[in-house]
Automatic annotation (TrEMBL):
InterPro entries: CHAT_dom, TPR-like_helical_dom_sf, TPR_rpt. The chain crosses the membrane at residues 830-848. This is CHAT domain-containing protein. It comes from Mariniflexile aquimaris. Pfam families: CHAT, TPR_8. Residues 567-819 form the CHAT domain. The keyword Transmembrane helix applies. The keyword Protease does not apply. Keywords: Membrane, Transmembrane, Transmembrane helix. The lineage of its organism: Bacteria, Pseudomonadati, Bacteroidota, Flavobacteriia, Flavobacteriales. It comes from the Bacteria.
């Protein structure tokens, strides 16, 4: 230590008197490069800190970029991925801010952008990975540097292969083959990646032919044979091919990380062959590579772990092999811990959503272990623990944003929190612009400019996150079963939370005093029953053309989902999951029926007042009320177009009668007016067209002049008491495990709305108008959206003016309410009547008394 300090002092003094700063930086970098180890790294880091305080000229900045790139490369080689990312990011920021590309031909792509993009991929930060890779592909295209452009295609293909988007991989590879100046090594890599994706798509013959069409090392040949046999389910042949690849491993030139992954693959293969001891040996070997001090035969200490997803593969397999439940859970919890370490570097919600699938699968395994233990011990604490695993994976991105907003409200003058929130909104704004650009002209320069801005925001958010974590160290979101049960007692309600896993659908039923868990087999038959019922609402004619088919399915699903267990409760909170996000529970039937008259059918809505929410945490939390109670309505109507909403105006008139409101019609119902005014009102009502989007286009909602896409909504800051989306499919969107549908309703939740009424399918204009008129009549009387939604459906069914066909649940059950059971406005009518009678009696008695006297 003393020696290091002496060297450092000598170096700085020498730098001051005998060298200029630029030369000193290059000298420090060259000294490190010639003797890389942890001691020289420590000295280099001390020198780097000093240099940062003194660099001024562009030449000095470029020298520091050179030093940082070499430092980051060493950190990456030695599995210090987080530090490597931070160092590369600082180098890139320095290079761009000082416009050093104009000063020198320093290869920023090779030295910084490529390894940084690869590091983002390694650590699961796919949003930043795509952005970074696309940036250097653009730079390579601009400079006609085809070697770098092809490298970009290779790394982009590897990234999409990691997240199982194999069709995208094939397109990237095929486009890359058209580029000039492909080296033989690059050609081999492209072909190898393509072969792997063909196998993943079960195109075995094409992959087999493709494998033979290029010259690969023996290691690559045997490795591809192993993958091919593994996909086919021939594990014995896969092991033979794997062993041959292992014999040639010296020619593969694998990094330590790649070598660890190789042993994990070996362990997975031994597990499939039911050879647990050999699997454990391979896993120990992988751990020893990643943790040189690890001795084996025990759980590693958390403090030794770092952000590396290979650990997750190792611990998950260790957990599966265990025969002891407690030990298995410890391994799974280590996986969750490493997953959290990885998430510390993610700044976009897309990255978190993409990575949630593995956490969900792991949660299902933990729940299954705990329920099996409960069968033996009957210890309710195990059910509570199982519920916690379910709740932890419920709308985690939404909950994180909600927590940040509430923390900012608690500390409204904190400059760090204000800056964080501004950056998050700006990030979503630029993401929205990027999506729109990619869907339209797709100008490469604009896309690159937006990608650079998003990268810069990501760096700022990471820096802020570190500072905020130090300032608010106890900022973990907590969940309390006791608090939940107190809320249920207050609402006279029961909560049902579903966890839709790969193998089971778990139903957690929580009342004010108890918790129960039911496991439903998630077989193909069960999944088909759910999807078939959902598809009954694809068109109005489906139900009416075969009413008996509907009634049979509605009762069968009622029994399947164990709704009958809730018969003692009027108020029910549903936390759906997976496919159940699209299910109208109110339209299920509580009993068998042969009736074809919809008004007489035993719908769930007649027995229970149902509300929904994205998680129990959302239902439990106390909402903050808007100061402005008035309503802002948007009614573009689209007159004289093929999208005209004829009955929308009647809906608006009903709102004006029942509430204090400002209604914007036709051209006034513009996107700009929404963006300018939405945050100023307590209730927002949008009567318009909407779309759930598809695999290319995001969910969106229409205004008179323009469309608002989902990511634009994410960038808003709203806090209304209620949002009513009187439009088609506002609760439908691409479904992600745990996070739910990427719908417009979710967009409003992300923007800050806690109570939302929205639709699950393409709704009918007339019936929607009738439902909405009834809704606002009850809402103005009761002040409770939950009660208003419930009574509007009952009123629709009981309305004699509506024919039987139009009383099909297609017309009235589309709207679901996500929120809480608000306390209704007190009804003082009876009190006033009694008070009036008493006053009359008193007056009469006084009159009689006065008359007698």
């Amino acid at each position: 230590m003393i020696r290091t300090i002496i060297i450092l002092i000598y170096f700085i003094c020498g730098m001051s008197f005998s060298q200029n700063l630029e030369e000193a930086i290059y000298s420090a970098a060259e000294t490190f490069i010639s003797n890389k180890n942890d001691t020289s790294l420590k000295l280099l880091s001390q020198q780097e800190a000093s240099f940062k305080n003194h660099v001024k000229s562009k030449d000095e900045q470029l020298a520091l970029v050179f030093l940082q790139c070499h430092k980051a490369y060493y950190l990456d080689e030695n599995s210090k991925l987080k530090d490597a990312i931070v160092t590369y990011e600082d180098a890139l920021k320095r290079f761009n801010e000082n416009q050093l590309s104009k000063l020198s031909d320093f290869d920023i792509i090779e030295s910084c952008l490529k390894p940084l993009g690869n590091l983002y991929t390694k650590t699961g930060d796919y949003t930043n990975a795509v952005s970074t890779i696309n940036q250097y592909i653009f730079l390579a295209e601009k400079s006609k540097h085809y070697k770098h452009k092809i490298s970009g295609a290779i790394n982009l293909a590897k990234l999409y292969q990691t997240i199982n988007k194999h069709e995208t991989v094939l397109k990237i590879i095929d486009d890359a083959f058209k580029l000039p100046q492909i080296s033989s090594h690059q050609k081999m890599l492209l072909q190898s990646i393509k072969a792997t994706s063909l196998v993943a798509l079960n195109k075995f013959e094409e992959a087999s032919r493709f494998n033979g069409s290029f010259s690969a090392s023996k290691f690559e040949v045997y490795k591809n044979q192993y993958v091919n046999m593994l996909q086919k389910g021939d594990y014995s042949e896969a092991l033979n091919a794997f062993k041959k690849a292992k014999e040639c491993i010296s020619e593969a030139n694998l990094s330590q990380r790649e070598l660890a992954k190789f042993y994990v693959e070996e362990a997975q293969l031994y597990h499939l062959l039911n050879q647990p001891n050999k699997a454990i040996q391979s896993l120990d070997q992988a751990l020893k590579i990643l943790l040189p001090k690890f001795k084996g035969n025990t759980l590693p200490n958390k403090t030794e772990l770092y952000a590396e997803n290979t650990f997750i593969d190792i611990f998950d397999l260790f957990a599966v092999i265990q025969t002891n439940t407690e030990t298995a859970l410890k391994y799974y919890n280590l996986s969750f811990y490493v997953s959290d370490l990885l998430q510390e570097n993610w700044t976009s919600q897309e990255a978190r959503i993409f990575n949630e699938t593995n956490n969900r699968n792991r949660s299902e395994s933990c729940i299954d272990l705990l329920l099996n233990s409960y069968k033996q011990s009957k210890n309710k604490a195990l059910l509570v623990e199982a519920f916690q695993y379910s709740e932890n994976r419920k709308a985690s991105v939404l909950r994180a944003m909600n927590f940040k907003k509430k923390r900012l409200k608690q500390y409204p003058n904190d400059s760090l929190l204000i800056k964080e929130f501004q950056l998050l909104k700006t990030q979503e704004y630029y993401t929205g612009l990027l999506i729109k650009e990619q869907l339209s002209t797709n100008q490469a320069s604009t896309v690159n400019s937006l990608s650079e801005k998003l990268s810069a925001i990501s760096l700022q958010l990471k820096s802020l996150k570190t500072a905020i974590s130090k300032k608010y160290p106890d900022s973990n979101q907590s969940f309390s079963l006791e608090a939940l049960q107190n809320k249920l007692a207050k609402d006279h309600a029961v909560l049902v939370e579903y966890f839709f896993g790969k193998n089971h659908i778990y139903q957690f039923t929580i009342s004010e005093k108890d918790i129960e868990v039911t496991s439903i087999q998630a077989s193909n038959t069960v999944k088909k029953s759910i999807t078939n019922f959902i598809h009954l609402f694809d068109d109005a004619s489906v139900i009416n053309s075969n009413v008996n088919n509907y009634t049979n399915q509605a009762f069968r699903l009622f029994e399947l989902l164990k709704i009958n267990k809730l018969s003692n409760y009027k108020n029910v909170v549903i936390i759906p999951d997976g496919l159940l996000n699209f299910l109208p529970f109110e339209a299920l039937l509580t009993n068998k029926t042969t009736s074809t008259t919809f008004a007489n059918m035993p719908f769930v809505v007649k027995k229970h007042n149902l509300i929904y929410n994205s998680s129990a945490s959302f239902y439990q939390s106390e909402s903050t009320k808007s100061k402005n109670k008035s309503l802002l309505g948007f009614f573009p109507a689209f007159k004289n177009t093929n999208q005209q909403l004829t009955h929308s105006i009647k809906e608006a008139e009903a709102i004006q009668r029942e509430t204090k409101s400002k209604i914007l019609f036709n051209a006034d119902a513009s996107k700009n007016n929404f963006l300018k005014n939405a945050s100023k009102y307590g209730v927002l009502h949008l009567s318009t067209h909407a779309s759930s989007g598809d695999f290319v286009n995001p969910a969106n909602i229409s205004f008179y002049d323009d469309t608002l896409i989902l990511n634009e909504l994410y960038s808003l800051d709203l806090n209304p008491d209620l949002v009513v989306l009187s439009a088609c499919e506002t609760g439908v969107g691409k479904l992600y495990k745990g996070e739910g549908a990427m719908s417009m309703a979710r967009g409003f939740q992300y923007a800050g709305a806690e109570n939302i009424l929205f639709s699950l399918w393409q709704i009918n204009d007339l019936s929607t108008s009738q439902i909405m008129q009834s809704f606002y009549e009850h809402y103005s009387e009761q002040g409770s959206a939950a009660i208003a939604n419930h009574h509007s459906k009952l009123a629709y069914l009981e309305d004699d003016a509506i024919g039987n066909i139009k009383k099909s649940p297609y017309y009235w059950s589309a709207f679901v309410y996500y929120g809480t059971f608000e306390t209704p406005n007190p009804d003082y009518t009876v009190f006033y009547v009694i008070f009036g009678i008493l006053m009359l009696l008193i007056v009469l008695l006084l009159f009689l008394k006065f008359k007698k006297s």
